[in-house]
Every structure is written in C-alpha cells, then in structure tokens.
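Onboarding guide, step 5: your first structure request.
Type a short instruction followed by the sequence, for example:

Predict the 3D structure of this protein.
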Amino acid sequence: MPRQLWPHQEAEKIIKAFPAQPIVLETGYGPSGAPHIGTFAEVARTTWVGQALEAIAGVAWTLVAFSDDMDGLRKVPLNMPAEALEPHLGKPLSHVPDPFGCHASYAAHNNALLREMLDKFGFRYRFVSSHQQYASGAFNEGLSRILANYEAVREVILPTIRQEKRKEWSPLLPICERCGRVNGTRVTGHDPSRLTVTYRCEGAQAGAVGDEPAEVDEGSSAAGCGHAGEVSILDGRAKVGWKVDWALRWYALGVHYEMYGKDLIESAALSTRILRILSGSKRSGPVQSFYEMFLDEAGRKISKSIGRGLTVASWLRYAPQESLLLFIFKDPRKAKKLSWETLTRTVDEYLQMLQKGPPEPDELELIHRGPAGSPRYEYRVSYSMLSQLIGAIGVPSPQVVKEYVHHYQGAIPSSDAMLEKLIEGATAFVKEQVVPARVDRTLTSREASHVEELADYLAQEHAAEEIQTKAFDIARAAGMEPKEFFRLIYNVLTGQDSGPRLGSFVKLMGQAQVEALLRQKAR
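The system replies with structure tokens like these:
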C-alpha cells in the first residue's frame, strides 16, 4: 500500500468532521512587520491540504489569508524605521501611517508585501483584512454575542492569565477616542443592551496584556492619554483580544480548518471553547493542526516583530522556488533551522529528487502543482558543487561556469533553463553570502606538507573515487581526523569549512587547476 503524505491525512480528518460541504481553510498573519518564512509556510501547507481535499474527494475549498491588522503596534521591528513608528505605538496597525509613504497605512504596506509574496507563487487564496471586517460590520454579530456572554467568556480566559490581571481583563478592547490607541484601554464597565463599554486609557500595562502570544507579551512603551469614555463595540470602534480573536473569526467566517504554531495550542483550545459559547454549543471548532517553529542559526524563533533570519526573498534570489517548497513540505511537526547551509543542502536534495523521483505518492506533484510541472535536471553537478566552484575560481561569468560543467559532465545543451537558474542563483549566493565570510587560513608547515602531498597526487590523472580515497589515506597517515583534513583542503580551495564530495569537486574544477591552487597555498 503506498504511503500517505501528511496533507492527505489532514484532508481525511476534515472530510470526516465536515462531510459533503465546501471547506473554508484559514491562515493568519500579523502585519506588525514584513511577512517572514513562517507566514509563507503556513499558506503553503494549508494550500497542500486544500489540494489534497480536492484530490481525495473532489471537495471545493477556499483559503482565507487573514491579516490581523487591527492589532496594536507593540514594538518596532529591527528592520523598520523606529523614528517613524514609535510615535504610534499602541495604535491599531491599520491606523498607523505608512513610514514608506506608499500605502494607506503601515498594515496596508505589510499586507501588500504578503500578497505580493503569495501571488508570486500563484497561491489560490482570498485575502481578508481584520480592519475591513470590523469597519464593515461583518464582525458585529459576533461582537454582540461576546458582549451578551461577557462573563462566560471571561470564565474561560481568567484561569490562564496572571492573578493581578484577572479583575480588569476584558474580552473587548475599545479604541481610545482621543489618542487612537487600543493597547492600554482598560474596560471599566459594559452594557449589553446598548452594545457599549466604558473605559479609561491607561497605557502600556492596561487592557489585554497577558492575553497575547509570547512574542508580544511585553506591553508597549506608549503612555495612556488618561481619557475616560463610553464607546460602541460595533463597526471598528473596539476589537477583541488574542484568545478571543480566533473564536470571532471562526464564527464569522465559518472556518473548518486552521494550522498554527505549537506555541498557540492553548490559545486555539480556548478559542474553541469560546466558539461554542458564541454559537450556543451548536458548532464544534474547526479541525486543527499545529506545526513546529522555524529557527534562525542561533536556534531562536524567527519573528516578524524582530525582523531577522533568512527570508523568502533571499531564498528565491539564490535558489529555485521549488526547493523552498520542499523544505517547507517536510514534516511540519519538526522544528526547522534556517541557515545558508540548509539552503544549499535542500537544493541538492531537490535536484536529486528530480533525477530519481520519490516513492508514490509524489511530493513533487504537490510542489509543482501536478506531474506536468516537473522540470528536468540530468547533471551530476549539485548546487553545492556549483557554489564551491564559483567561489574557488573567483566568481566568473555564467558561461565560464557552464564550460566547467561541460568539461565535467560531457555534452550539455546550449540553453538549459534549470542549469542557468542554478548558476545565476549560486553566483549571487557566493557574492553576497560566501565571499564576505570567507576563511583566510594561514597554514602551518605541517599543514602545508599535507596539502602538498595531495597536490603531488593530483599531478597524475585519477578518478573521483581514487581522489576521495587518497584524501582519507593522507589524513590517516598524518594522524588527523578525516573531517579536519577535508576542512583544511576546503579552506585552501574555497575559503569555506566544508563542501561537496571532494573527489567529484576536484574533477569538476579540473585536477590541474586544483593542483595549482594547492601548491600556491602550500608555499
């Protein structure tokens, strides 16, 4: 029996829970900063679930890409202009002016970046703005039900927040009529018959702090203006806090499926309970699935509010988009560390899959949106070999690189889109990421003698496997760990600490050229 891929497993759960009906899938994005790879991954993964629904049972589906652009700006990301944004801390993101001057608001600017990223990959989605949902009245019924069940909703949330915050916690956050801030308004009373709340604008530590994802549970530095007033909860004059927000969206949009990060499991469970309150226990929550986080090279969670880490744009600059999709497709329940080494390793794996093809059902069909979309790659030259070659011979023109491939591979077509894309990406990668970090190693006399020994061996023609074996022999005879010897050779040839299989790389570069480089460094 063929193995079942995880999107098909998710699709079967949805079909079992919601048989014979069009399915609404949702992903969420907080536009407090530019969209990062985690945002992209959530859309990609949810899309694969939708495609599996269609493939398994012909189920119609819609993916809602929801922007939480009514959230307050709590801090300025490192990669955003602080001087323009700091005066607006605490205001809804959709009310913060665009510091770049090209969109109606800061949220609209980041929403546009999200849509541009998703459109580039041809994702099928319906963009929904939280600001528009509130302002248009689309959330009014749900807001009214929250106010009508005010204490019941509080009872769900209070056990999960700090004791000192429980008395003042409210599921509703009014926007201050004087200063326009939503982070820092403390609800002092509510009137379900009039659909209003009274409040005081007290600043950073008021409101729903303690009811936010861990990465933003720091409060903002914005001071409250002290205004006290009464405001309607309808038409965008108030919003709900994080742990109530999902329930409101699920209720208003009729969501059947949602994926989220592992750190939000508790929030999703609480929202499911609140959804039952809003719907009078008539609706179960959506089918849910969690995934592990993306980590940067230091093992820290990648966050748009911080603004660091390898981005979708940089990956696409250096490598085919399908390699990024492959990286994301792999087991969502495993944490994924993003690094330049990850990029090169994943591209190599993708090229191997193009050559061999994985077992059925085929991951490549999902990545390429069908079998007809799969490109061909028939060369024995990996991405890591190309990037090492480009670095070793001084970042030459693409035509020079193709001549090396021709010499190593044999006859190649005058034009090959995949090979040319790989060379272009690898060249940019070497220029921008490898050359600035190049290792300039000064050899000891002992190291120079080992390098010279390998150069002497390369003076005569040898097969790739023979060169590989000789490298191991030199290391053993010198009393070195093989990995230390290979590091030494790659330091000399490319300025890096590692590389592809040495024997194959020597043949790609050409033995005479490698011999000359080794002798030059050993002098």
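Each response can be followed by summary notes, for example: The first helix runs from residue 6 to 17.
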